[in-house]
C-alpha cells in the first residue's frame, strides 16, 4: 500500500477535516484540504461556485485539484463528493492509502444542519440527508483501502486507530 499520501474520504460532517489535522500533526506531515485549495484557487466560496457555475463545474475543479494533491506528500482531506467520479477514486487509490470515515448520517445531520457553507445540505431534511449518504456509501466503500466506523468514537479514538 502506498502511504506517501493518506486520503480521508467520507460524507460531509464526518470529521475528515478535524481528523486530518490531528493525524497530520501526529505523523509530522502536512495536511491539505481539497475544498480549501479550490477556495484559494478560485478566490470564492464553495457555495458561490455552486450558485454561479453549478455543481458540475465544482466537480471539474475538484478533479483538477485532486490531480495536484496526488503529487504531494501528506494527509489529504477531501470533499464529501470526491468519490463520485471513477477517475477520482482510481487516482486516490493508486497514489495513496484511502481511508473512509464511515458515519451515522442521522448523528451528523443534527450537528451540521443549518450550515450555510454546505450547498448540498441546503433544503434537505434528515431523511433526504440520510438517503443521499446511502446512495453514496457504495462509492466510499469502493474507493477505500480501510474503513473506520466513527459513529461511536471520539476524534482522538479515530486518529489513534488510523495511526
Ligand atoms: C460536498 C461536500 C463538501 C464540499 C461541497 C460538496 C458533497 O465538503 O466539497 O459542498 O458533495 O458532499 P465536506 O465533505 O467537507 O462538507
UniProtKB/TrEMBL annotation:
> Which keywords, in A-to-Z order, does the entry hold?
Amino-acid biosynthesis, Aromatic amino acid biosynthesis, ATP-binding, Cytoplasm, Kinase, Magnesium, Metal-binding, Nucleotide-binding, Transferase
InterPro entries in the cross-refs: P-loop_NTPase, Shikimate/glucono_kinase, Shikimate_kinase/TSH1
Which cofactors does this protein require? Mg(2+)
A GO MF term: ATP binding
Name the reaction it catalyses.
Answer: shikimate + ATP = 3-phosphoshikimate + ADP + H(+)
Q: Where does ATP bind?
A: 13-18, 118
The places in or outside the cell where this protein is found are: Cytoplasm
Please provide the Gene Ontology terms (biological process) for this protein.
amino acid biosynthetic process; aromatic amino acid family biosynthetic process; chorismate biosynthetic process
Give me the Gene Ontology terms describing cellular component. cytosol
UniProt protein name: Shikimate kinase
Domain of life assignment:
Bacteria
Q: In which residues is substrate bound? A: 35, 59, 80, 136
Record's cofactor remark = Binds 1 Mg(2+) ion per subunit.
The biological pathway it contributes to is: Metabolic intermediate biosynthesis; chorismate biosynthesis; chorismate from D-erythrose 4-phosphate and phosphoenolpyruvate: step 5/7
Q: What EC number(s) are associated with this protein in UniProt?
A: 2.7.1.71
Q: How does it assemble?
A: Monomer.
Detail which positions bind Mg(2+): 17
Tell me, what does this protein do in biology?
Catalyzes the specific phosphorylation of the 3-hydroxyl group of shikimic acid using ATP as a cosubstrate.
Q: What is its main location?
A: cytoplasm
A matching Pfam family: SKI
Q: Which protein family is it in?
A: Belongs to the shikimate kinase family.
